[in-house]
Amino acid sequence: MIFGMCTNMNARSPNDVGHDQAAYSKKIGLEYLELSVDRIMRYDDTRFENLKNDILNGDMPCLACNNFIDASIRLVGKEYNQNTFENYINKALSRIASIGAKKVVFGSSKARSIPSYISNEAGKTELIERIKYIAGIAEKLGIEIEIEHLNRTESNVLNTFEETVALAKQLNRPNVKSIFDYYHFAVSGEKEELIIQNASWIGHMHFACTMGRLMPDLDEAKKLKSLFAQIKESSYDGSFSLEAYFPNFELDNIYYKTVMDYIREELKK
After folding, report:
1. What does the alpha-carbon distance between residue 210 and residue 248 come to, in Å, rounded to a whole number?
2. Residue 31 burial (CB < 10 Å; 0-12/13-18/19+)?
């Protein structure tokens, strides 16, 4: 298994991708960065080229990306604009492919939300068409789409791990999987045995404590022993990103390395 950091959680501003966290991530034993697409898309060409050069010439690759579609873009209902959507998707996927990312998490809660004036079923049908388009462009670039389950406080569609696995099965494309996001999974009250039952459909993982979406301390991490056991017993052996706030970010890198060493040992095959 390979471990990484979602840099948006501890970035200095909403317009900063947080690439400066590379050195810290390496200190606590991580191996890659996960950057936010919507923030990358706010960079002009010059700033993006500088970022790309920093990533490609650095020692912490960007293997995955999240926060895929900007909140200003709507995928469902009368607010959907085909040209705006397709232009954004093509540019976004081209950019993240150029920095080496192989996975993109499709969460994008505001973009995918279903308006109240149409039914959930009709909205989901539209959303599936958007995902098919995204998957087609991504496949040509060697990128896998990870459909994210977002709990009901954040989204009104695809709220559980079971639902995103079912959708990935329905789409049946080689580059479409479900993410396993422990934070949303726990908030939604799903059963841990679902991990083993659906392991072959998991393409990526996100991890944070449910309380405050924090990076756990060692005591909290030890309380999740059964979760780690389920993951270990499954066939999953891919990427595992910390999508968590660090209460003492940049200060306690020795302590958090201890936490990561514990998690890594628990998940070791």
Report:
1. 18
2. middle
- In this structure, how many other beta carbons lie within 10 angstroms of the beta carbon of residue 85? 18
3-state secondary structure of 197: helix
Instruction: Tell me which H or E stretch contains 187.
Output: helix 182-187
Q: Residue 107: which of 75, 137, 68 has the closest Cα? A: 68
Angle formed at CA 126 by CA 124 and CA 129, multiple of 5 degrees: 110
The distance of Cα 88 from the centroid of its chain, to the nearest Å, equals 18
Per the CB < 8 A criterion, the answer to whether 21 and 51 are in contact is no
CB neighbours of 202 closer than 8 A, spacing ≥ 6? 177, 178, 179, 180, 195, 234, 236, 238
First to last CA, the chain: 8
Contact 1, 266 (CB under 8 A): no
Average pLDDT (108-127) is 97
Q: 22-49 pLDDT, tens per residue?
A: 999 999 999 999 999 999 999 999 999 9
The answer to whether 202 and 243 are in contact (CB under 8 A) is no
Give the domain ranges of the chain.
2-267
Tens digits of per-residue pLDDT, 59-95?
A: 999 999 999 999 999 999 999 999 999 999 999 999 9
Q: What are phi and psi of 218, to 5 degrees?
A: -65, -40
Structure confidence by residue, pLDDT tens digits, 198-222: 999 999 999 999 989 999 999 999 9
* Tens-place pLDDT, residues 233-261: 998 999 999 999 998 776 667 889 999 99
Domain 2-267 class, CATH top level: alpha beta
